Amino acid sequence: MILEHALITVRPDAHAEFEVAMTKAREVIAAAHGFGSLRLLSGVESPDRYLLLVEWDSLEDHTTGFRESPAFLEWRSHIGPFFDGQPEVDHYAPVAGLP
Amino acid sequence: MILEHALITVRPDAHAEFEVAMTKAREVIAAAHGFGSLRLLSGVESPDRYLLLVEWDSLEDHTTGFRESPAFLEWRSHIGPFFDGQPEVDHYAPVAGLP
Prior knowledge:
The structure is a homodimer. Chain A is of the alpha+beta class. Chain A has one domain (2-86): Alpha-Beta Plaits (2-Layer Sandwich). Chain A contains three helices and four strands; from the N terminus they run E-H-E-E-H-H-E. The first copy, chain A, has helices at 15-29, 59-66, 70-79; strands at residues 2-9, 35-43, 49-56, 88-94. In chain A, helix 1 (15-29) packs antiparallel against helix 3 (70-79). Chain A is globular, with a radius of gyration of 13 Å. The relative contact order of chain A is 0.30. The mean pLDDT of chain A is 97. Chains A and B meet through strand 1, helix 1, strand 2 and strand 4 of A and strand 1, helix 1, strand 2 and strand 4 of B. Strand 4 (88-94) of chain A pairs antiparallel with strand 2 of chain B, so a sheet runs across the interface.
């Protein structure tokens, strides 16, 4: 399992629209090969910041399998209009013994 | 539920020791009021960076209940020696419909 970790800043006037758009975007990403789960959370200290956590079977399922597929453009077409700048995306792997 | 989100940079020579220390520290935090779960993951793009995700029943269970208790000092005594700088800690709340 690889965890995609994305910090997304959303325009202050677009929180509700972004959250609705993510429910549609989730249907797109959930159909991708290697997709495991998706969680979206909103910042307590920074209300415009959202934390997106997506579990993938492997790094490549995200970085090439999904990102280089037409589905990625569809995913972004739902949520991208509400971004305030580019998301910060990186990946994390489980530590043995600390699931 | 509130998610504590901590980005921890660990000294390059201390990864293995930090991971063992976290298994001990977990026993301390798991006994705290309002603790739900703990996950530790290591950075793919930045190997010295760890992502710690702790679920709490409420924000206050972490920020006052745990941090202001003697258990916090014990928790930090296990893992703090391996930090390279101060962790970046913030909190996130679930978004309705996107658990």
